Amino acid sequence: MPRDPRAALTARLHEMDHKKLNSRQKIVAVAPMMDWTDRHCRFLHRQLTRDALLYTEMVVADAVIHGDHARLLGFSPEEHPLALQLGGSDPRKLGEAARIGEARGYDEINLNVGCPSDRVQSGTFGACLMKAPALVGDCVAAMKQVVSVPVTVKCRIGVDDQDPEPALDELAERVFRAGADALWVHARKAWLQGLSPRENRDIPPLDYGRVYRLKEKYPDRFVGINGGIASLGQCRDHLGRVDGVMLGRAAYHTPLVLAGADELVGRPPQALDHPQLIGKMADYAAMHIASGGRLSHVTRHMVGLFHGLPGARRYRQILSAEATRPGAGPEVLLRAFAAIEDWPAAA
To answer: Which of these, 65, 90, 292, 311, has the minimum number of CB atoms within 10 Å of its CB?
Structure first.
């Protein structure tokens, strides 16, 4: 047992995560989202759910190896369980990046095989790797050789003119044979030419049935689903067919949806105290500002927090107008929250 209490905690979390992936216990996760799921966003999400698995933005393997670890890989201990998503296609580099990620305390290492952005295409990774399942298997094997935490993959059902039936089957076969602990599937194709990354999130039709069929083919493997899931009711329906469900934009734009996530996996619902939540985030923002950051780094992820509640529009206006001003402090967040009406009834 590690002597350092923080290391001991991390070791226990690693063990818990292995059990989750191997026991078929259901998992709710928040998807990795570029420019959104940074450490401040994840800290907010963790205040709303104890158990949901959180993911970083994709970090390119070369950046992990050569970059500023504190800036690229830093996180609050409260964020656990937390997965690091890597981008890349060089097995050796991905292995080294995975080793660094585990050493930094991440509970899972995930390989991006689904992002269709131009930047990713120029580096021949992300969704491009759907066309190279053997290489994806080699990448997974290289990471599995050097870490003890779970190694997982997030992919699409196919790209461009691929037939999703054989394409997804071949990718799954390769990654599971290489030892992948889980496969998360965004239930859309990605079009590498002709659609922007934003359009790729909406225009290709969803095909949840394809993911269900994959799970039927691999009853003893962890298969999770992602794409267009907007409510806890939809999450519950999917969890009847697959092992995990991953919320994306719904979790970002309407974070309160996460307050019911723990109940979906058999845990008691978390009592949500809105004033306490805002106080926690104000304290967090104060620490970030004291370390040289800006209030807007934190509050930009909180704009949709009270969506649908009386006063939410005024709350958004205050944050949008005042949090970006030079010298803005946590009092802006408190002032914005004061616009929310009838919060005791909603808490």
So the answer is: 292
Query: pLDDT tens-digit profile of 157-172?
Result: 999 889 999 999 999 9
Tell me, yes or no, whether 199 and 221 share the same domain: yes
The tokens for 240 are 């009847």
Structure tokens at 196: 């922007």
> Per the residue annotation, which of 41, 115, 128, 139 is the catalytic one?
115
Give the domain extent around 328: 274-346
**Are 259 and 282 part of one and the same domain?**
no
- Which amino acid, 252? Y
Whether 115 is catalytic is yes
Instruction: Indicate if 153 and 96 belong to the same structural domain.
Output: yes
- Tell me what the pLDDT averaged over the chain comes to: 90
Q: What is the pLDDT of residues 263-279, one digit of tens each?
A: 999 888 777 899 999 99
Residues 69-126: tens digit of each pLDDT: 999 999 999 999 999 999 999 999 999 999 999 999 999 999 999 887 766 656 677 8
Of 234, 264, 294, the residue that ends a domain is: 264
Other Cβ atoms closer than 10 A to 166: 10
Q: Are residues 244 and 311 in the same domain?
A: no
**Number of domains composing the chain:** 2
Q: Within this chain, do residues 137 and 85 fall inside the same structural domain, yes or no? A: yes
Residues 305-337 pLDDT 10s: 999 999 999 999 999 999 999 999 999 999 999
Give me the CATH number covering residue 290.
1.20.120.1460
| Residue 269: inside a domain | no
Distance CA 260, CA 310 (A): 20
